[in-house]
Structure formats: C-alpha cells, structure tokens
Amino acid sequence: MRIPEASGGAVTIGEPGRRWTTVRRIAAYGAALAMLPYFIIKIFWTVDGLRGGGLHEGAWSTLNWAAINGLTVGMAGLAIVLGLALGQRWGARVPAWLLLSPAWIGMGFLVSMIPLLPVSLLLAQDDWEATGSAALPAWELPLIGLSFTGFALGLAVAAPLYARQRWPAAFTGRVDEAGSAASASGPLQATAARIATAVCVGIGLPQIYWALGGAAGLERPGSGDLRGGTFSPRTTACGP
After folding, report:
1. Secondary structure (DSSP) of the chain
2. FRET pair for 126, CA 20 to 30 Å: which of 138, 150, 161, 182?
3. pTM summary value
4. Rounded to an integer, what distance in angstroms lies between the CA atom of residue 201 and that of residue 109?
5. 60, burial (CB in 10 Å: exposed 0-12, middle 13-18, buried 19+)
6. What is the CA radius of gyration of the chain?
C-alpha cells in the first residue's frame, strides 16, 4: 500500500522515505570521516613505536607501544568500514550479526561518553602540560576526542536508520502486540530485553550513587580510591 506525500511523491508504509535515506548516508559517511584522523594518528604512533619511540614509563614499561597502537589501527580501520557499510548499498548484504554487533557495542560505549569527552579532554590537556611531557603535541588530544565524538554521533543516527530500512517489519509494533505479525522468538526477545534492562539498572544505580557523592563500596582515599586518583590522558578512553 502506498500513500501520497505532500510533495506529490509516494512512500511505502513501514519504509523510510528518501529524505531519511539521505540522512542515514550523511551520518554514516560522517562517522567514517570523523574516525579518519584517529586512524592516521595511530599509524604514525605505530611507526614511531617500531623505531623505538613512544611511551616507556608507567604501564607502558611492560606494554609494547607499537603492538598496542597497531591493534588500534585495525580497530579504527574496522570502524571506518562500519561507517561506509551503514551508508552504502553493499552494506545491506553484510550479515546482520557482523554489522549490528559492532554498531551496537560502539554506540553503547561511545554515545554515553559524548557529554564527558569535552571535559575529559580539557583535564587531560591540563594534566599533560603539568607533567611537562612532549610525548604528544597539544593538538592531538582534541583531534582524537573529535574523532570519537563525531563517530559516536554519526553511528547513533546511521545505525537505527539502517536497521529501520533493512528490517522494516521489526519496527511496525511491539513484540506480540495485537495486530502485529506473530513471532516464535517473541517470548525469548521479551525475556532478553527484561534481563538487559535489569543489568543496566543494576550497573547504573551504583554509578548514580557514587556520582552524587556516595562512598559505600569505594576504597578509602589514599588506598586506590578511583575518585582520588590522578587523572592521566594515558588512561582515558581517547588513548593510548
């Protein structure tokens, strides 16, 4: 069944129109483009590590700078491919689990960090300047933060629109809602959703309690209390 649009065109019920397709592609390409600076920086860091450069103190005294950064080069490359897959037609031929799993995990980690990234970058920059280290130029940390922020925003828009276009029937109603197509996996999906909700609540409530100043469950100050530790950009989500 088709219904006319105000512009005189037609759109199939249950499928996004061309406007949303354009939004999806812009967001997906934007996510891939945003991750490109991080990808390039990591290549330089890997090459620098192979030449004996990089960090060698602290935790890095037991870690291989070149190997760790080489691993993140691969991860950043996969993130760029993910963005392209969400925006191009060949992405519809990629198995669902192979595409949606990294997209879902990426959104879960990065979207929740968007409000914290600007503050984290400012604190990290102050800490880096205070230590007098020249391991990182001043512009690299903001650029890395911009890469993650842009990728998170693009992914948060492109992935749901991609799923809406590829599986429109899944968005026509709630599980087992009257009038919706019956699904043998409906009860399993509902159970999984309830379990996921319970886990999120169980993790979120203590975090809210600690954010409001609660101390129960935390170590005493001076004995490893996370809230009393020294902030270091080398341990942030934007590094290594």
Report:
1. -EEE-TTS-EEETTS--HHHHHHHHHHHHHHHHHHHHHHHHHHHHHHHHHTT-S--SGGGGSS-HHHHHHHHHHHHHHHHHHHHHHHSGGGGGS-HHHHHHHHHHHHHHHGGGTTTHHHHHHHHHHHHHHHT--SS-TTHHHHHHHHHHHHHHHHHHHHHHHHHHH-GGGGSS-TT-TTSPP-TTHHHHHHHHHHHHHHHHHHHHHHHHHHTT--TTSPPTTTT-GGGSPP-GGGSTT--
2. 150
3. 0.66
4. 16
5. middle
6. 22
Residue carrying the six token digits 């897959």: 85
Which amino acid type is present at position 108?
Answer: G
Per the document, the length of the chain is 240
What is the per-residue pLDDT across 118-162, written as a single tens digit (0 to 9) for each? 777 666 665 555 544 445 676 777 788 889 999 999 999 999 999
pLDDT tens-digit readout, 190-221: 788 888 889 889 988 988 888 888 888 776 55
